[in-house]
User: Fold these one by one.
Assistant:
Number 1:
Amino acid sequence: MVDKAQSLGIDLISLPLIIEPMSEPDRAATKEKFLQFLDQKNLRITSQRRAIVDTVFSTDQHFTAEQLLEWAREKDSSVSRATVYRTLPLLTESGLVHEMDFGKDYKIYDPNYAAHPNHNHIICNDCDKIVEFESERLDALENEISGKLGFEVQSQQLTINASCEEMKRVGACKNKGE
Ligand SMILES: [Zn+2]
Ligand SMILES: [Zn+2]
């Protein structure tokens, strides 16, 4: 795609850049930070909580509370819904996981903020497929708009609600809720 863009003379800086999943060592380091955060709050790391934390920091997927419960139970079948719902606010409070509202009747959690604090999302309205991207052109535009209005950008995240390939083609997505 890059070669094609270059041969067409497209300005690469202006293309949105799909962000890479966080590397294994980065995820491990982020998990360590969260364990320290729990420690500072004098919160015990129970085996249930350990399974939840291991799950969150071993995926680069966005997840809902119910997905997290399901995945964590694969590691430790004793994980309770209540513990998941008590742990999620701690994860967001630590700043290492972001709670996102895409206008659905559930929140989606994003574990990829530690490496990319200002990334953007495009989400399929039907199956919740998410692609994360950064764009220097978008950043420049946001800086320009903010500057003209007398503001300075502190953080930015753009969300595009859209139809994925499959929804465009057949009008509905097979893999809903996965
Ligand atoms: Zn994200
Ligand atoms: Zn879709």
Number 2:
Amino acid sequence: MDTPMDGDRPTEGALQDETDSRHVSRRPVLRAAVAAGVALPAALMGVPALARTVPSTGGTLELTPECDDGDDPTPPQTEGPYFKPNSPRRTSLVDAGTVGTRLTVSGYVFGLACVPIANALLDFWQCDNNGVYDNRGYRFRGHQFTGPDGKFTLQTIVPGLYPGRTRHIHVKVQNPGGRILTTQLYFPNEPRNNTDSIFDPRLLMTVRNVGTGREGLFDFVLNVPQNPTTSPTSPTTTTSQPPGGTWSVGTTYSTGASVTYGGASYVCLQTHTAQPGWEPPNTPALWRAA
Ligand SMILES: [Fe+2]
């Protein structure tokens, strides 16, 4: 058992390279249809395919997620003293006997153009229900990779509190072969958020109660330049070359707009900005054949 103290205080200057004071400006991006392939059932049910739906027992639609607009990648934070390399690859840090409030953390990893990043590495670590880090083994440590749609999901518990810090989860996120973002995720409405000098509201998850557990949502934006007309890190979402037509990635289409693709004509059903993989034949929630 370690004595955590407040060892997560930042080392001055150590992580300032990616920290900046640029303003936070956000715009809504209808990008949940990144999972267009997965959203088909919702589309068939008449549910807006561009909203992230509650996975199980929720019953209400969550807000359409946002992605930063390119000048505000997810801010870095100190690694703290408790990171250990070589964590197990796993998406769940709990088992039947784990003590603590169950927490599911999910979201997407994007680059600066809000294009999802497939196969991005996420390495999570946190303390247990009592605020203790496992520094001998790998309890509450695990890494995973985003899927082809850039999504990740972590099953864990709400971390406990320890002296000097507010409630938080540590994570490292890495574009394949790229630079590592080390940061922390926070919980809203925590009294200690107001007194923890490391706390950054830009790193607050959206958290809600679900049954006896909680769900946290957070999307990472890596400082990775992207051309929104391509999906450079996601070969599995790349389709064959468009066989001609007026449809193009990056264009915002309004409901009722007409395009041609692959020799056929389509009418837009929902206003959206076209992304790789959202070709009209692939997205019946967005386009119908004219
Ligand atoms: Fe910590």
